[in-house]
């Protein structure tokens, strides 16, 4: 678990709890520019703590938190370690694909999703569809996401929010695909 870190920048004190930066005295959230500077200041210390982690669940948890807080290179390192440690772990593949997409590497994400997607794991298939969107392959993305949504409806009575968001992205960028279906 993370030890709290306190830094002073431009006369203000900020605390990092392993998830978020906040003003130590007033609990306000600093601006993105300040967060980026604070993240850079603790990068080596956090990397050393991350390097000591061997538990797959903890690696994935840290990768997701790092991604959510904009620490994308850290998220990539953690997700890659988790995936390389167990290439059959579909959750690790999904997290890695998500990070790769966010840093602008959808081709790599698609390659991993294509390998892992043979297991019909909805998060991987959703990420695969999103990577196809990133690459402008709207027809294939729509086919993929419609299958994911249909399977979700069969299992739970509705599609996942992520899958529906990908479908919305396709509709916004390739509305003609929906007009043909009508």
Provide structural commentary.
The chain is mostly helical. Helices cover 67% and strands 7% of the residues. Helix 2 runs antiparallel to helix 3 (72-85), helix 2 (56-68) runs parallel beside helix 4 (90-102) and helix 3 (72-85) packs antiparallel against helix 4 (90-102). It is globular, with a radius of gyration of 19 Å. The model has no long low-confidence stretch (mean pLDDT 91).
Keywords:
three-stranded antiparallel sheet, mainly alpha, 9 helices, 182 residues, 3 strands
Spatial separation of the terminal alpha carbons: 52 Å
Q: Assembly type of the shown chains?
A: single chain
Instruction: Going across the biggest sheet, name each strand in turn.
Output: 1-2-3
Main sheet? 3 strands, antiparallel
Globally, the shape reads globular
Cα-atom Rg, whole angstroms? Answer: 19 Å
Low-confidence regions: none
**Beta-strand fraction estimate:** 5-15%
- How confident is the prediction overall: mean pLDDT? 91
Total count of helical runs of at least 4 residues: 9
Number of strands: 3
- Helical coverage, percent range: 55-70%
Helix-strand string = EEEHHHHHHHHH
What structural category characterises the helix and strand content?
mainly alpha
Please outline the helices and strands:
Blueprint: E1 5-9, E2 12-16, E3 21-23, H1 32-51, H2 56-68, H3 72-85, H4 90-102, H5 106-116, H6 122-134, H7 138-156, H8 161-173, H9 176-181
Antiparallel strand pairs: 1-2, 2-3
């Amino acid at each position: 678990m993370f030890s709290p870190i306190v830094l002073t920048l431009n006369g203000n004190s900020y605390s990092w709890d392993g998830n978020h930066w906040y003003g130590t005295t007033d609990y306000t959230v600093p601006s993105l520019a300040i967060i980026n500077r604070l993240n850079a200041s603790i990068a080596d210390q956090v990397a050393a703590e991350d390097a000591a982690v061997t538990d797959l669940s903890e690696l994935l948890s840290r990768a997701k938190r790092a991604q959510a807080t904009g620490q994308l290179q850290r998220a990539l390192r953690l997700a890659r370690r988790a995936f390389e440690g167990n290439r059959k772990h579909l959750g690790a593949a999904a997290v890695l694909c998500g990070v790769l997409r966010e840093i602008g590497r959808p081709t790599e994400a698609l390659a991993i999703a294509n390998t892992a997607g043979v297991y019909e794991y909805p998060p991987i298939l959703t990420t695969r569809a999103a990577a196809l969107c990133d690459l402008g392959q709207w027809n294939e993305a729509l086919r993929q996401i419609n299958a994911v949504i249909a399977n979700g409806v069969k299992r739970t009575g509705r599609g996942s929010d992520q899958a529906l968001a990908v479908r919305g992205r396709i509709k916004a960028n390739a509305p003609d695909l929906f007009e043909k279906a009508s």
